[in-house]
Amino acid sequence: MTKNDKNMLISWFLVILGSISLVLYLDSIFRYINFPSYLDHAEPNVVFRSWRLLNGEMIYNPIDSEFFLIVAYGPVLFLINAFYFKLLGSTILVSKLSPIIASLLSVMVFVYYAWREFGFRLLGIGIFIFVCFLLFGTPYTIWTRPEPHIIFFVTLSLVAGSQGLRAENIWLGPILVAILIGLSVNVKVHSFIYFIPVVILYCSDHYLKVWPIMVVISILVFLSPFALPQISMEHYIEGVKSVVSVRSIILDSLYVSIRYATSFIIPGILALTLVIFFARNNLNKRNIFAFGLFVVCVIVGLYPSSLPGTAWNQLIPFIPVSVALFLHLVNSLSHHLKSQYVIFTSLILIFAVLSVTPQKRFRKNIEGMQQKTTEAVLNVKEILEKFPDKTIEMGYGSDVAETYKLTFVKPILAFAGNPVTVDGWSDMESYEYGSKLQASKLKRFKHCKTNLWLIPRAELPFTMDNYSPGKKAFWPEYVTAFMHAHEKIDTSTHFDIWRCRSRN
Description:
Blueprint: H1 3-34, H2 42-54, H3 75-88, H4 92-118, H5 120-136, H6 147-166, H7 172-187, H8 196-202, H9 207-223, H10 233-244, H11 251-278, H12 285-301, H13 319-330, H14 337-386, E1 392-394, H15 403-406, H16 411-415, H17 424-432, H18 439-446, E2 452-456, H19 476-485, E3 486-491, E4 495-500
Parallel strand pairs: 1-2
Antiparallel strand pairs: 2-4, 3-4
Helix pairs in contact: 1-4, 1-5, 2-3, 3-4, 4-5, 4-6, 5-13, 5-14, 6-7, 6-8, 6-13, 7-9, 8-12, 11-12, 11-13, 11-14, 12-13, 18-19
């Protein structure tokens, strides 16, 4: 066997390995689609805001409004989800298609990028690491929250930037990247940090002329959704301020985030180390500078990932950049194939091991809640049929570990036209951050503006703990006002039905 034959065989092996990892990822996606609810309490909040937008309602309300729910996500996220609702109807299943399609498109776009930029020789290892990162980050990479969309935008920026360098027009790449930055920042305000290495790699030629224009374009793209009448810039800013201005770093969360952050840096560090030893003359200064800035950006990303109510998922959108920079660096070892194979073997072992535990945990969570959640969905639909002329909201009980997860099916109520004025995620964060109790919500309880409330069966309403240890999820005034004005009238499989006492 010739040297070329051997190299081709190894390349095919890596492609097959990458394909196997993709099959495993597709299996995780199928499990999530087949699950009738959500895995995180912020997902329903995103979903019914998107439904509100589709129906011409305000998605950001004044802080003193009874419909105010805390959120720091921008309107692009809700516009994307609303598009799917408009196209396919408003269901829990459809709400999951948006992030899942974004995630799958990210894989496809990255495959194209790796093929065009590095050829077949590095395609397989690129696919493998990219997909293993997605497996490693499950469910963050497929859930109904911002991360899958930002990953997609960042991956697209790699293609846009690299294609721009090949084009004769110096503006093509920078303009496209700037648009993607604007979209991402609209989803999450700090998202620009994920694009900084991309800008250095592909948009740094004529930077004195190009970068100011990119900033202007990004700002205009960011602002454009606020031209819609149901999207208030003022109330969006109020919501962001209510979240970010009162939080400080939790040391335990910082420690966890640092551990995960190292996984994004390890591939580049390994490649750079071997390049310095064996191919120093092949070092590209732009690649080195981009990788250095990437490390700085990851360190900066530790801040939003270490705040109360967040986690290391804030680092997830670094996935495309981490793999791209690794491929750029390891490509410098093209004449030192043994060194490349040492890196490939090391990373295959590292990422195979890293992917196992998150996947086991993900499958366990899905399987453990499958039956009860299916019953809860049927339960809510039965109640809607039983009380067709009543407004119905999802309330909360005393258990935050198990039955709280059953309340995640609440978008079913919203899809039927019911209001959403109380949300577990929103109230947890508001109460924890010391936000002022909203008199309008308390008034709504007292005046029974919602006809019926669903409370997890045999639990005292609105008494559950916060996810943060030693704290409650709701103000004590919620319990007093609700119990004074309401009484239990019926019991179903998983929910008690409460109504206003005055209606006896």
